[in-house]
Amino acid sequence: MLSPQTVASGLLAASLCVPVAAAPPFFNPFMRHNLAATLGPQLSSGAALYTKSNSDFAKHDERWTQWNAPTFSAVVEPASEKDIVATIQYATSNGIPFFAQGGGHGYSGTLGIIQKAIMIKLQTNFGSALYNAHDKSVSVGGGAKYSVLAEAAYAAGRELTVGSCPCVGAVGGALSGGHGRLQGKHGLGLDALKSMRVVLANGTALDVSAEKNVDLWWGMRGAGQNYGVVVSATFNTFPETPGAMHYDGELILDGTQLEEVFEILNEMVPTWPAGLAFDVLFAAFPGSLDPVIVLSMIYAGPKREAAKYTHRFAALKGSLMFSENMYTWADLPFKAAGGSIAASCGTTKLRSTYSNNVRTFDPKIQRDAWNKYGEFLQAYPNANGTGVLWEIFGTQRVSEIPANASSYAFRDRVTMIGLLQFDYTDPSILPGIEAYGKAWRQQSIENSGWDDDKLYVYPNYARGDEPLDSLFGYEHWRIEKLRMLKKEYDPTDAFRGYHDVWSHPGKDHHGHSERGDLK
Ligand SMILES: Cc1cc2nc3c(=O)[nH]c(=O)nc-3n(C[C@H](O)[C@H](O)[C@H](O)COP(=O)(O)OP(=O)(O)OC[C@H]3O[C@@H](n4cnc5c(N)ncnc54)[C@H](O)[C@@H]3O)c2cc1C
């Protein structure tokens, strides 16, 4: 996912979500517990425990967005699986919520339901990766960033689908999909998963794979945040792109040829190459409220092949800048889009998103969306890091994998993923954000090019106010199956923070309440 604020500044180059559900009035007995004296002795010597009494607590519970974010009363940095089990058992037996943090980049508004929790911070001691030469897989800790996974594979001459942003959690991303530039060749991040080690809310640790705990294996690859803490995961890898270099074309247009941009995209989409990945972004330069169109065009292969696709856009009138570079695959997340994606890893902002996937673009509707984007910038000049992003990646391998192979539902609906990403500092503008965001999403649904007027959302890009079936599938059996797994593996709904299949807010498309009956 690209970040408008930094795209406009770094390249010339982000982000996301409204209170979806108010935090429930949990009785929080936290303050009665002296964690250092009670939980502390149960942890191994390599683990760390931070509470609000630590003067530097704020630096331990940082997250990418402050919007509707979870809050924490303590942070545990486990050093062993036993530490994770001990922390979960302590939390559940004392009625304290807990939260596994991987890369800290989750931004669904549903996360706000987690308040005054114990954070199990995985990145510190479960943030590394190891290449397994015997089967060419990579094993990562549950908090490893995409960059760490990519570097371990790359060093062995291998690759796999990772997200565009180096600081996102590789496991966090894969649990709900793992969408990335190489997905046309290798499928989603979750498709590369070989096995996971998972700790449930009752403290049981399980091996989960196609051979072991196969029902949970199905559920955790698409709705994985619902069931347990992933201590470690192993990903399959693939031979690297021949020549090992990737093309990066960066183009900025002034918007005069906007219709042509979307017409060319419509023309290209039916035969979109597996290794081609475009980010098409409406952004504004910092200090300016004039929108520009940024095209970040990446191709897994040589320039002469990439040019067939990218030079059509570069030849359009209104070009303000065009650059072409070749990067190694491991460098791409840091260098593509002028380094702006890596620069969006900062933590102190209010960011939120609205999202919908479409099949085709209506150029007139995109002109209207452009005009409305400009009006939003004028009305809220301090939110000029806001942007409208379309991710257009290959889908061949994603759609080859049978739809029922995992709980990830929309393999045939990931052609073009749309994101309206808000980036702001003043919380009082939220009503303006919601009004614009909902109208943009509705317009996108009505002009999606699908044969129905349904919302299709990649769960990791969801705001959290969407009906559950728009994330996990319109076939009823999918949500039923996810709920059966919930009853079996997390009957107390301890893992309720991220698109909870049990008590997700809102109603489904039939108007039925989505709250399940967890008994
Ligand atoms: C700047 C940016 C760029 C992005 N780019 C992409 C992209 O290119 N492709 C893509 O697919 N997605 C992308 N995303 C979305 C991303 O996949 C989700 O936000 C994802 O939830 C982030 O995972 P995390 O571990 O970083 O976040 P966290 O906030 O740590 O976790 C998010 C959720 O996952 C759970 N979780 C994380 N790790 C574990 C674990 N080990 N065990 C159990 N639960 C866990 C958390 O409890 C939480 O519920 C991007 C997000 C941002 C902010």
TrEMBL record:
Domain FAD-binding PCMH-type: 68-240
Record InterPro entries: FAD-bd_PCMH (IPR016166), FAD-bd_PCMH-like_sf (IPR036318), FAD-bd_PCMH_sub2 (IPR016169), FAD-linked_Oxidoreductase (IPR050416), Oxid_FAD_bind_N (IPR006094)
Keyword terms of this UniProt record: FAD, Flavoprotein, Oxidoreductase, Signal
Name of the protein in question: FAD-binding PCMH-type domain-containing protein
Signal peptide from the UniProt entry: 1-22
Pfam families according to UniProt: FAD_binding_4
Family, similarity comment: Belongs to the oxygen-dependent FAD-linked oxidoreductase family.
Species name: Cryoendolithus antarcticus
Gene Ontology molecular function, alphabetical: FAD binding; oxidoreductase activity
Annotated Gene3D superfamilies: 3.30.465.10, 3.40.462.20
Cofactor(s) the protein requires to work: FAD
